[in-house]
C-alpha cells in the first residue's frame, strides 16, 4: 500500500494513505471509500481498515485532515500523553475547513484513473461527525458514521441529505449522552435516506481494535452492516 498527495483548492497539499484491491485498473475500475480519521490522525488502525476495505473490493483513501495544524499525526490511544495531544488537535481542528479538504479528496477520488466514480465515506468519532456533514454538504454517494460526536448540534442539516447515510450509535457513549442520542434518533428517523443502528451496552469506539471499549462481537456486526450497506448502494 502507498501514500499519495492531494492538492487543496485553498493551496498546499496533504497526504492520504491508499489501499487498492488486486487487479484494479483503468479497464477494471473499483468504487472508492474515503476513510475519515478519529482524533488520533492517520494511524495503523485506520490503515488496517483501509487494507480490509481493499480486500473487499474498494479503493480506500485515508487523508491527513490535521495537516493544517501538524502534518503526519499518528497517535494511539494507549498513553495519557497521546490522549492529551489528540484532544489538543481536536480542539484546534476547523470542521468547515475539514469538509472543504474532504471535498477535495472526493473530487480527487472521482477522477482517479482506476475509480468507477462512485465514492463513499466512512468516519469514526470526529470522522463520524464529518461523514454526517459530508452527506449533507457534498455530492458523496454514500456516507457511514461510527459514534459521531456532536451530530445532535447539526440536525438542521439533515434536510439536505438526499443520498444514503448509515449511522452506528453506541448507547453508552461517554461523549454522546442519552438525550443527544434521542434527539438524533428522533430527528433523523424522518429522513428515509438515513439508516440508524443503535448498540445497547456499547461505549464510544467499540470497533477500535485494542481500545478500552473494543467489543469484537458488536464490532463484527457493525462492520458487516457497513459492508452490506456499501455493496447494496454501489449496485
Which characteristics define this entry?
35% helix, 235 residues, Rossmann fold, alpha/beta
Would you write up a description of this structure?
With about 240 residues, this protein is of the alpha/beta class. The protein has one domain: Alpha/Beta hydrolase fold, catalytic domain (Rossmann fold). The chain is about 35% helix and about 20% strand. The chain has helices spanning about 45-55, 80-90, 95-110, 125-135, 180-190, 215-235, and strands at about 1-5, 15-20, 30-35, 60-65, 115-125, 140-145, 165-170, 195-200. An 8-stranded mixed beta sheet has the order 1-2-4-3-5-6-7-8, with helices on both faces. β5 (about 115-125), α4 and β6 form a beta-alpha-beta unit. α3 (about 95-110) crosses α4. The longest helix has 18 residues, at about 215-235. The protein starts with a strand and ends with a helix. The mean pLDDT is about 95.
Helix content: 25-40%
How many structurally independent domains? 1
- Widest sheet: strand ordering: 1-2-4-3-5-6-7-8
Alpha carbon gyration radius? 16 Å
Beta fraction of the residues? Answer: 15-25%
Amino acid at each position: 500500500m502507498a501514500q499519495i498527495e492531494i492538492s487543496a483548492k485553498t493551496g498546499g497539499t496533504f497526504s492520504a494513505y491508499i489501499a487498492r484491491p488486486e487487479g484494479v485498473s483503468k479497464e477494471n475500475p473499483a468504487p472508492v471509500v474515503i476513510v475519515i480519521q478519529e482524533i488520533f490522525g492517520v494511524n495503523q488502525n485506520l490503515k488496517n481498515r483501509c487494507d480490509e476495505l481493499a480486500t473487499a473490493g474498494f479503493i480506500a483513501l485515508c487523508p491527513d485532515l490535521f495537516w493544517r495544524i501538524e502534518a503526519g499525526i499518528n497517535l494511539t490511544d494507549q498513553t495519557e500523553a497521546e490522549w492529551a495531544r489528540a484532544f489538543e488537535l481536536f480542539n484546534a481542528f476547523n470542521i468547515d475547513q475539514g469538509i472543504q479538504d474532504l471535498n477535495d479528496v472526493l473530487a480527487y477520488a472521482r477522477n482517479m484513473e482506476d475509480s468507477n466514480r462512485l465514492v463513499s465515506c466512512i468516519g469514526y468519532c470526529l470522522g463520524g461527525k464529518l461523514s454526517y456533514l459530508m452527506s449533507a454538504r457534498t455530492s458523496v454517494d454514500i456516507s457511514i458514521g461510527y459514534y459521531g460526536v456532536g451530530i445532535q448540534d447539526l440536525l438542521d442539516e439533515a434536510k439536505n441529505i438526499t443520498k444514503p447515510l448509515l449511522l452506528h450509535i453506541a448507547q453508552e457513549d461517554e461523549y454522546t449522552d442519552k438525550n443527544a442520542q434521542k434527539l438524533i434518533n428522533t430527528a433523523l428517523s424522518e429522513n428515509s435516506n438515513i439508516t440508524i443502528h443503535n448498540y445497547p451496552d456499547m461505549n464510544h469506539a467499540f470497533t477500535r481494535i485494542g481500545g478500552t471499549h473494543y467489543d469484537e462481537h458488536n464490532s463484527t456486526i457493525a462492520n458487516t452492516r457497513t459492508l452490506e450497506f456499501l455493496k447494496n448502494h454501489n449496485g
